[in-house]
Amino acid sequence: MSHNPVIDVSELSVSYGDFQAVRDLSFQVERGEFYALLGTNGAGKTSTLEVLEGHRRGTSGTVRVFGATPTDRRAVRPRMGIMLQESGFSPDLTVTETVALIGRLTERPDSVDRVLGLVDLGHKAGTLVSQLSGGEKRRLDFATAIYGRPELVVLDEPTTGLDIQSRDALWDVVEQLREDGSTIILTTHYLEEAQQRADRVGLMHKGTFRHEGTVAELTRTLPASIQFSLLPGAPVPPMHPAPPSGQSYEIETFELQADLKQLLDWADAHTVELVGLSAAATRLDDVFRAIGAESATAEPPTTEPTTA
Predict the structure, then answer these.
(1) More confident of the two residues 176 and 218
(2) What residues contact 131, with CB distance under 8 A and at least 6 apart?
(3) What is the DSSP string of 11-45?
(4) How many CB atoms lie within 10 A of CB 300?
């Protein structure tokens, strides 16, 4: 990692009374990187983000954003755009007034009309926030986060409540921000968004990282799967699959392409039909589920409170 990251977290812990939400968490985010901070329920994602945003102080450890303490709002806030899960905008302000207010607070120069055009809210410029639909409020959240083209953009569940067209439009704007050099931090329950877009992923569980790396590095921790069925009387496959259920087979492999080719060559040579053949590479959600499954079998039940 570089000596001048945009975000530098070292041994961060966050406690609420006797409950430790984040435990000795360390990671860095480089300039221009798209970093996805993901986790199971109660993993500590929101607590970590609140510290990065300057909304909460850690119990211990050090956190630097642009080399400064996040609570140093004069140093950090003008350079950071934040899209919270819920904005809490004043219902009595219009859309234009809301965006303009955020612009003044962050001291980033921009055009309200330009930003509203990006999020397709230009026709709602004079509408009160209280009169917006849920999806329109979410687009307003995004508008305030990207006002002034901030160097760092934090997106907390950005596409929740958006229709498909609005989601696509949001990601188009994010890609433009990246091309302009912005650093992106994402939390989302839509894991395919992280899989498609993130340069690296930090996967949290119970307050600390269970995995961190590129999507390819994380998915290589689990085998891919080849599934098929054979007709009665067919010979046994040359592989070493899991015990069959009837005539149904599943082969777990870390060499998907090579093993699939071997299976297809065998089937062709023996005139065997592979009924319902499917071959699936490991996905990020498989890694996510594996963490939950490991936790359920390895750890006793807990009655501790949870935090997002």
Answers:
(1) 176
(2) none
(3) EEEEEETTEEEEEEEEEEE-TT-EEEEEESTTSSH
(4) 4
Tell me how far apart the terminal alpha carbons of the chain are, to the nearest angstrom.
28
Structure tokens at 21: 């939400």
pLDDT higher than 50, residue 308: no
DSSP conformation class of 78: G
Q: What is the pLDDT of residues 117-153, one digit of tens each?
A: 999 899 999 999 899 888 889 999 999 999 999 999 9
Region of residue 304 (left: phi > 0; alpha: psi -120 to 50; beta: else)? beta
Spatial neighbors of 294 by CB under 8 A, at least 6 apart, are none
Across the chain, the runs of DSSP E, i.e. the strands, are 7-16, 19-29, 34-39, 60-65, 80-83, 152-156, 183-187, 200-205, 208-213, 224-229, 248-253, 275-280
Under a CB-based contact definition with an 8 Å cutoff, are residues 83 and 153 in contact? yes
Determine whether 97 is exposed, middle or buried from the number of CB atoms within 10 Å of its CB (0-12, 13-18, 19+).
Answer: middle
Judged against a pLDDT cut of 80, whether residue 292 lies above it is answered with no
The reported pTM is 0.80
